[in-house]
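User: I'm writing a tutorial on reading structure tokens. Could you give me a worked example: one chain, its sequence, then its tokens, then a sentence or two explaining what the tokens reveal?
Assistant: Sure. Here is the example chain.
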Amino acid sequence: MTLLFNAYPLARAVLFSLDAEKAHELTLRLLQQTYDCRPLRHLLPAAPMRPRTLMGLTLRNPVGLAAGLDKNGAHIDALAALGFGFVEVGTVTPRPQDGNPKPRLFRLPRAQALINRFGFNNQGLDAFIANVQRSTFRREGGVLGLNIGKNASTPIENAVDDYLTCLEGVYPHADYVTVNISSPNTANLRSLQGGDDLGKLLQSLQQRREDLADRHGRRVPLVVKIAPDLTTEQVDAIADLLPRYGMDGVIATNTTLDRSQVEGLPHATETGGLSGPPVHELSLAVIRRLRARLGAETAIIGVGGIHSGQQAREKIEAGADAVQLYTGLIYRGPALIGECVRAV
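And here are its predicted structure tokens:
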């Protein structure tokens, strides 16, 4: 165990005494400072090597960082140094936006959960790409996913334009691109998960990806991130559309609007997406249904409520090819990464 692992329970006690969003920002700043100081860098754990192939990409191990922790892609190398097998950053939108009013991040410690209503707060596509270009993770063989979305001010009927703008910008710098249509914190965004709207979006992305592949001489996988609150019929409809429009994978799942498992807890009535253990079973159900419908060809990345190696293993057993962490990392610290790698 490294010093960083041993120190995290004490650090968490201090961080949890602060406002949740300020603690989030402070943690990233301290991690970056540790990484930037070469004498301290040895305190960060080496990535456990359990190579796995996903969408033609070789992951160092099948445990990745979920999007949302580093929305601007400003800390890619420092976060990768915690031991992740792959890293996903974003969500980025074409134009900078502040997101929703603060406070917008709430802890539910008894459930080891979080509620957030950030609303895709980020510095915009140009700043995001500049940050990605400064990182060395990809150049050193790491797999980097870039997560794209729409601006809140863009009418939902024009959402495709925002996704195409982002795809065009991030394409040369990504190992895979995630299309986020499942955040509950941008008005009407989840409507893109259904019916004709999803088909039109995926067809547009497929066509633009073909153009970009010709231009750049490489085909970048596209994956779609979906919600845990879908009906069986909705999951089936999405599963049928993904291979039709050449999507390489699906991330299951984003945060939930369901509050049944946290009812009565402080902050449980806050609006936003709930993450952590209350999402685990919902995510498993979606993964199982997707795998049954998709067969073995389409990649599934399981995320939502992984707070132990056992839960990571359950995601794999349900049909996921790899997993991602977010809320569990905040409650358990970096020791969770190695635990999950060993479990899966």
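What the tokens reveal: The domain at 3-343 is CATH 3.20.20.70 (TIM Barrel). The longest helix spans residues 195-216.
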